[in-house]
Structure formats: structure tokens, C-alpha cells
Design goal:
single chain, 197 residues, mainly alpha, Four Helix Bundle (Hemerythrin (Met), subunit A), globular
């Protein structure tokens, strides 16, 4: 399996784990009648903005998708939909960050809006990643050349997602505190286990 595909899947897995865990963590705080760790929540949303939105999506949109458009015109509608998701993703994460800040500053009356936006954002993102993995990556595997994969492997292998490190690679020192902040906020039973610990 090409490195680019392994990186895409690992980054999807890390993001999906976090997006699915945050509502569970918030629910646990609600049941315990405790305030969530807003600093950790801000770190999680920063991660989504910093890696999937800016690096991961950009490489898909600029490198993977154009190659597929050239070789598989029948994928045009799917690629258009995925590109539209990428385009609205930055706006959506900013709105989510703003809603979190409003909840932190204004209190419980703002909690419901944040949680609703998080639910919508998570559902859209999980659906988006599933489409890429079921409709795009298999077609890419069938259609792209060894040269295409060499270029994609270089591009996707050039960054290190702090929540999806590849075996044998250390997390970039600059992002190590972010990784630790996020993982520390997800104790058992919410932690992701050995793959991301």
C-alpha cells in the first residue's frame, strides 16, 4: 500500500477517534456536573484546524484530486462534493471555535449551541472521510501510476501529524505539547490506547 494511502488513513483514524471522543467526554462532564477542560477543547479544535484542514485537505485538493479528475471523469461529481467540503471546512471550524469560546465566556446558555455545531461538524467530517476511503482511494489505487504515487508519497510523507505518527518517527518538537495536551485530556475510558498513546 502506498505511503500516501497509509498516511491518509492514519490521519482519518486519528481525527475520527478524537471527533467521536469529544462528545463522550462532554457527556461525562455533564453527568458529573463538572466543567469541561476548555483549554483541552481549544487544543483539540486547534489540531483540527492546523492539520486536517490546512495540510491534509490541501494535499488532497492540490495533488490527489486533480490526478483523479484527469483519469476518471466519472468521479467529477464526487470530487466536486469533496472539494466543497474542503472549502467550507475552514469556515466551519472557525464557527465551532467561536461557539466554544462563547460557551467558555458566557456559560451554560451557550453550551447547547456548541454541542449542536459539534454534532453537525462531526457527522459531516466522518461522512467526508468515509467517501474518500470508499470512493476515492480504491479508484486511485487502480488508476494512478507508480510516478503518481511517488509524488503523493513524498507530499503526504512530508508532514507529521502529531496524533497519527508513523512508526519510527518522532512527533515534531513544536507540536509535542499539543499532542500531550490532547492525550492528557482523554483519560480512560476515553483514551485511544497504544496506537496513539
Amino acid at each position: 500500500m502506498p505511503l500516501a494511502v497509509r498516511v491518509i488513513r492514519a490521519e482519518h483514524d486519528a481525527l475520527a477517534a478524537m471527533l467521536r471522543t469529544v462528545p463522550l467526554l462532554l457527556d461525562a462532564h455533564r453527568r458529573a456536573r463538572t466543567a469541561p477542560d476548555f483549554g483541552a477543547l481549544r487544543a483539540m479544535l486547534f489540531y483540527v484546524d492546523e492539520f486536517p484542514e490546512r495540510l491534509h485537505h490541501t494535499k488532497e485538493s492540490e495533488l490527489l484530486f486533480p490526478r483523479l479528475r484527469a483519469r476518471a471523469p466519472e468521479l467529477r461529481a464526487v470530487l466536486d462534493d469533496l472539494e466543497a467540503d474542503h472549502a467550507q471546512g475552514e469556515r466551519a471550524i472557525r464557527e465551532l471555535q467561536h461557539s466554544l469560546l462563547a460557551w467558555e465566556q458566557m456559560g451554560e446558555p451557550r453550551r447547547e449551541k456548541f454541542e449542536q455545531q459539534l454534532k453537525v461538524y462531526t457527522a459531516r467530517y466522518l461522512r467526508h472521510m468515509k467517501r474518500e476511503e470508499t470512493e476515492i482511494l480504491p479508484r486511485a489505487a487502480a488508476l494512478l501510476s507508480a510516478d503518481d504515487w511517488a509524488d503523493l508519497d513524498e507530499a503526504f510523507g512530508s508532514h507529521q501529524d502529531p496524533l497519527a505518527p508513523r512508526p519510527g518517527q518522532a512527533v515534531d518538537e513544536a507540536y509535542a505539547p499539543l499532542r500531550q495536551r490532547i492525550l492528557a485530556a482523554l483519560p480512560a475510558p476515553f483514551g485511544w490506547g497504544p496506537a496513539l498513546a
